[in-house]
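Retry 2 of 3 after timeout on previous attempt. Resubmitting structure tokens to design endpoint.
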């Protein structure tokens, strides 16, 4: 008798980040994964090196110091924080806790791919609500809720569209959801947003028992390689997360470097200024070339080419000239190419290459 995996798991698409190898280019500009091109701050790098002495020890399972550092920076109770191996692991844990076969997991049309992938892994059905103008549509999400819905995932800001849900709209979403549906506010890019009508959702976690907010060290903190993320949740959900996570799910280097990174406000400020400047430069230059760029509040943009064939050719043109961007077919946005804001020289290179693109 052959082994039989649990139903649904074979339907989960593979998450394929794309190769960093370009034939004939020694050091391509990697603008495909929304990392911080400045890397981590010096304090985090020093702390990481310091972790070498402790490599033979198991990590502190509860990530106590790291949670304290996160709590201090954001004014949150560390007892309501759980850390994970990237916010990907947090998304996985939440899905395992709240959804299973026969349940529905709801997300916005162009939402982060790991939401449907995780739903399928637990045998649940991913359900997409339509967007308007590449922006999460609260009414469409609420209309898609059924008595099978267990989780609603929203990324705020959203990857890959770069749009955000204003605070009042997010509140309307929470208030419109039944109490037995978990709302996950994925705020992976929140540090980059400077809009008065945006907040990361902490207030909603404090007010409602069915809301959590996830964050990551992979973006502005520049520590994607360490795999570190966290979630702020009501005590009951935190308790369930602690039952679900592996006993040592966050390694020593990640805990030590993460605590140093989160205390380093100047690196965040520097990264925000860099992003503001070069996101706006890249947007304007692309628009001058007739490329459509929906407004983005993240550290990336999507460049619209009107049809899939042109977008594919633009992607290949960038790639063959040493710039690795990201194709968006998996997100239902095959007419677009996503590009991360890189270093100044990478952004300039990308723009110069696009000037040579014959649409
Ligand atoms: N949420 C969103 C919206 C993302 O774009 C990403 C990374 N691309 C993640 C979560 C996962 O990030 P990580 O696992 O590195 O924390």
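Retry 2 succeeded. Sequence:
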């Amino acid at each position: 008798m052959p082994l039989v995996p649990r139903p649904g798991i074979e339907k989960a698409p593979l998450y394929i980040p794309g190769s960093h190898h370009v034939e004939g280019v020694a050091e391509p500009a990697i603008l495909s994964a929304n990392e911080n091109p400045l890397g981590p701050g010096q304090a985090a790098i020093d702390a990481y090196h310091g972790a070498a002495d402790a490599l033979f020890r198991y990590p502190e399972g509860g990530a106590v110091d790291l949670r304290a550092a996160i709590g201090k920076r954001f004014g949150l109770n560390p007892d309501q924080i759980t850390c994970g191996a990237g916010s990907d692991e947090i998304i996985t844990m939440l899905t395992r806790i709240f959804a299973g076969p026969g349940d529905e997991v709801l997300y916005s049309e162009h939402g982060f791919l790991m939401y449907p992938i995780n739903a399928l892994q637990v045998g649940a059905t991913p359900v997409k609500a339509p967007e308007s103008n590449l922006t999460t549509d609260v009414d469409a999400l609420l209309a898609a809720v059924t008595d099978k819905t267990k989780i609603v995932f929203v990324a705020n800001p959203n990857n890959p569209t770069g749009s955000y849900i204003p605070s009042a709209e997010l509140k309307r979403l929470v208030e419109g959801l039944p109490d037995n549906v978990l709302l996950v506010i994925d705020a992976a890019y929140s540090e980059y947003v400077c809009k008065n009508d945006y907040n990361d959702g902490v207030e909603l976690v404090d007010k409602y028992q069915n809301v959590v907010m996830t964050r990551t060290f992979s973006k502005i903190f520049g520590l994607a390689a360490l795999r570190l993320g966290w979630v702020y949740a009501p005590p009951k959900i935190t308790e369930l997360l602690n039952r679900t996570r592996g006993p040592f799910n966050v390694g020593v280097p990640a805990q030590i470097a993460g605590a140093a990174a989160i205390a380093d406000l100047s690196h965040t400020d520097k990264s925000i200024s860099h992003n503001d400047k070069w996101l706006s430069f890249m947007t304007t230059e692309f628009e001058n070339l007739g490329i459509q760029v929906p407004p983005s509040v993240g550290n990336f943009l999507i460049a619209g080419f009107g049809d899939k064939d042109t977008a594919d050719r633009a992607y290949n043109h960038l790639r063959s000239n040493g710039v690795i961007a990201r194709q968006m077919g998996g997100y239902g946005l095959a007419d677009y190419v996503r590009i991360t804001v890189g270093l100044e020289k990478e952004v300039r290179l990308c723009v110069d290459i696009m000037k040579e693109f014959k649409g």
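Attempt log closed. The radius of gyration is 20 Å.
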